[in-house]
Request: fold
Amino acid sequence: MTTQQRTIYDHFSRIASFYRHIRTTDAQPIRYIGKKLKGSKAIRAADIGCGTGRYDLLLFRYLDNLHLTCIDINESMLKQTSAFLKGHGIHRFITVKAQAHDLPLRDNVMDCAFSFNAVHHFDFHRFIEKVAGVTREGGFVFIYTRLQSQNARNIWGRHFPLFIEKEKRLYELDDITEAVDSTRCSNIEDIKKFKFKRKATLDQLLDRVRKKHYSTFSLYSDHELRDCLKEFKKKIVHHFTDPDCIEWFDENILIALRLRPKTI
Reply:
């Protein structure tokens, strides 16, 4: 692991027990996926970079006969996923500790694969090649993420000091398209953009930063984060008239890939 990878790994280990409570989980992309897969009698799928299973619960609610392999590199996150799904009476899943570019799955075994807000942690080219190998011909790969440009337009990109400078892992659509085309194993079948209106109090926003709800905040040193938090508070008070009603938009994108016929 690089130093940054170790920092991120330790960050997720520390926040695993309360991660679901500090992140927003949107049902709209899952509804879209449900419509895309409507009519499938049984779905064998993998969620790569599953975190604590917050999107996995929605997948089970919207997809009938789903059998899910939940994959993450962080063992603490996987333990939370297992307890979370079982606590909701869901048992048609397994958890697997693995990296996104080294999936311990047989070729052509999955009907589809998902990744929610995680691909910026991956080596994207290697991830696409690997996930295409384990997904059957004609199967789907759904990638839900935020682009670098979308990140720059949200409340953190606009108002939190150094946020854009720290967060260089996110991709642009051209990067994703180029990586998909270079593998020659899948086509981009659809691109769906989402825009969500958010609302929070200033205290809630400050609490999210302190709890590092985005892994971006783990890339700050302690003194940097303290100083930037103070500056962020000043900027929010200056730009918003009511600190108890701060509104902004978050943007995300969902990319649906379709696997091409396998070559021999």
Observations:
- The two ends are 34 Å apart (CA to CA).
- Residues 181 and 187 are 7 Å apart (CA to CA).
- The chain has a mean pLDDT of 96.
- Residues 3-148+169-196+252-259 form a domain with the Rossmann fold fold (CATH 3.40.50.150).
